[in-house]
Design a protein that fits this description.
The complex is a heterodimer. Chain A is α/β, with parallel strands linked by helices. Chain A has eight helices and six strands; from the N terminus they run H-H-H-E-E-H-E-H-E-H-E-H-E-H. In chain A, the strands form two sheets. Chain A has a four-stranded parallel sheet. The chains are: A alpha/beta, B alpha/beta. The interface between A and B is medium-sized, with 22 and 26 residues. Chain A: InterPro entries: DNA_Rcmb_RecR, Rcmb_RecR, Rcmb_RecR_Znf, TOPRIM_dom, TOPRIM_RecR. Chain A: This is Recombination protein RecR. Chain A: Belongs to the RecR family.
């Protein structure tokens, strides 16, 4: 922003909002104006929610999820199958799997992926805790639900190798044709992966 | 035969030396002539940006903005493509790019709708070009010949770009791990498996494209044994490419992964990965003389290159039931004797391609009189000539 258009408090608010993903300076100004206009029903509740988050939100000591309690509510949920651990890169991936109600297991959030080009190694990720969990005897299967990127796939290989000495079954999610997708529109790499991972019916 | 790809209307805005220029053209060849430095090649460069990639000079996008212009540059065209008629446009605005994350590409629009990236242009525009910068293709570094081949591979295999990106990213990751002194087998293996997978697929895609090109060259030899453009013998040189000739892809993949594992210390010392498809070469020979193209005379090399580029154009045309790609031929008549010049023009007319040719002298194109649009380039504008 070249020139300040409001007092320092408002400028600071716009500046911080513009650092959120998907918000540029223009939409941050819009969001700030909207908050200021709706002081009672939006700005104050949001401020309270944010300050409560600062006070209470923490990372789960078990799985790395974010919640107000540790272990998190998913790890405490007695109806979940604790013998199946789904490994994901980010909390967002966990939310996606939960939204789809895809599996009734528990999770393990790595907090990213191995990326030599960004200087991220195994020590920067929540991998030691995963190995502890896998060797505790309670876990029977680890499902690796990582991204199909270069980094996601090399992270998967690394974890698979690290889990080899434990006796848990390790599996990976399939790559291939999306539900409702047409083969004609798929890229070659996805098609090749789909053929490679075919199964007998 | 399907009609060839052609531009009906081309407009440049604040591009290189042009403030604003509009060219309306028919489907036939176009000759741009004028003095050195008048901006003929700039027009070809603008057209080359209507296809995916970085354009024929591979210039950074900010450099394309006309000196003294404030906003951004734009190139727009109405094209008659095999997917029908379309309005396509591309441009880049340095100020808009500065507001976004670093490394943003150019903007692309198709029929007024923003497209994800320049890759979307592949459905509409295919271009084959030949510029004086390519004169050293046979004597220069292997990387130039790989790029030449890979551009053709992309026409047949749109997934090739992401494959190449995957290989490059995995290779960079491995180089970094080696440089950082990481000796953890599981970490190195993780990226080497991806390199082996992508690398083998890259080699296989190149092999199938070279095979197609060889077929076209053989057919051209039969059709025109006295062509002024000698036929080229082409083959791929590379460890994965030769392994694929005698073993199934899965085995080649496995053995490349194993070799990568065994070469870690050597690659660590070298500071790069010494084996892979990023080291392959396209070996071209002068067919009739059975000698390496790089040992041929300058004139012969140019004739070989023209023959190769025309074979490439013909291959793309065959794939689209005869619809030829655009041809951009920069300073094409230089170093050509009369026989070769006339031979080239009749090849272009036979292919039915909209060829955009540049030259300093209109008389060199007199054989095309009545069949091509002649435009004089001067004072940052274009002027029709009725020859």
């Amino acid at each position: 922003m070249s020139k300040a258009i409001a007092g320092p408090e408002i400028e600071r608010m716009i500046q911080l909002l513009s650092r959120l993903p998907g918000l540029g300076p223009r939409s941050a100004r819009k969001a700030a104006l909207s908050l200021l206009k709706r002081r009672e029903d939006l700005l104050m509740p949001l401020a309270d929610a944010l300050s409560a988050a600062v006070d209470r939100i923490t990372h789960c000591s078990e799985c790395g999820n974010v919640d107000t309690v540790s272990p998190c509510s998913l790890c405490r949920d007695g109806r979940r199958d604790r013998s199946v651990v789904v490994v994901v890169e980010e909390v967002g991936d966990l939310w996606a799997l939960e939204r789809a109600a895809a599996i009734n297991g528990v999770y393990h959030v790595l907090g990213g992926h191995l990326s030599p080009l960004d200087g991220v190694g195994p020590d920067n990720l929540n991998i030691p805790r995963l190995l502890e969990r896998a060797s505790s005897g309670e876990v029977k299967e680890v499902i690796l639900a990582l991204n199909a990127t270069v980094e996601g796939q090399s992270t998967m290989h690394y974890i698979k190798e690290r889990l080899a000495p434990t006796n848990v079954a390790v599996s990976e999610i399939q790559k291939g044709v999306p539900i409702g997708g047409e083969l004609d529109y798929l890229d070659d790499g996805t098609l090749a992966a789909a053929i490679k991972s075919r199964r007998r019916i | 035969m399907a009609p060839s790809l052609s531009l009906e209307r081309l407009s440049l805005t604040d591009f290189r030396n042009y403030a604003h220029v509009v060219i309306e053209t028919g489907p036939g060849p176009i000759v741009l002539f004028g003095l050195n430095g008048s901006g003929k090649t700039n027009i070809l460069e603008a057209i080359s940006l209507l296809a995916p990639g970085q354009g024929l000079r591979r210039a950074p996008y900010p450099d394309l903005l006309r000196a003294g212009a404030n906003g951004g540059w734009a190139v727009a065209a109405r094209v008659n493509s095999r997917s029908g008629r379309a309005e396509i446009g591309t441009g880049f605005s340095p100020s808009a790019a500065a507001g976004q994350r670093a490394g943003t590409g150019r903007v692309v629009r198709i029929d007024g709708e923003p497209a994800g990236g320049s890759g979307a242009l592949a459905d509409f525009v295919e271009i084959v070009w030949l510029t004086p910068a390519m004169d050293g293709l046979f004597t220069g570094p292997a990387s130039e010949r790989r790029r030449f081949l890979d551009r053709l591979v992309l026409c047949f295999d749109p997934g090739f770009r992401s494959l190449a990106g995957r290989f490059e990213r995995a290779t960079q990751s491995r180089n970094r791990l080696l440089a950082d002194g990481v000796r953890d087998n599981a970490r190195l293996e993780g990226v080497e498996i991806i390199m082996a997978e992508a690398g083998t697929a890259i080699a296989a895609a190149r092999i199938s494209t070279v095979r197609r090109l060889c077929d076209v060259i053989a057919a051209r030899r039969l059709r025109d044994p006295d062509s002024p453009f000698p036929w080229s013998g082409i083959e791929l040189e590379g460890s994965l490419e030769s392994a694929l000739a005698s073993a199934p892809a899965v085995d080649v993949e496995d053995s490349y992964a194993r070799r990568l594992a065994s070469m870690r210390e050597r690659d660590r010392a070298a500071g790069r990965t010494l084996e892979g498809p990023h080291r392959s070469d396209l070996i071209v020979s002068h067919g009739p003389k059975n000698m390496p193209a790089r040992l041929s005379s300058t004139g012969e090399q140019k004739a070989l290159l023209i023959g190769l580029v025309m074979a490439e154009a013909e291959l793309i045309a065959m794939r689209h039931s005869g619809s030829a790609p655009l041809l951009l031929l920069d300073e094409i008549t230089a170093h050509l004797d009369d026989r070769r010049r006339d031979g080239l023009f009749s090849e272009i007319l036979r292919l039915g391609a909209q060829a955009w040719m540049t030259g300093t002298d209109l008389s060199a194109f007199s054989a095309l009189s009545g069949q091509a649009t002649m435009l004089r380039v001067a004072d940052a504008g274009l002027h029709s000539v009725h020859a």
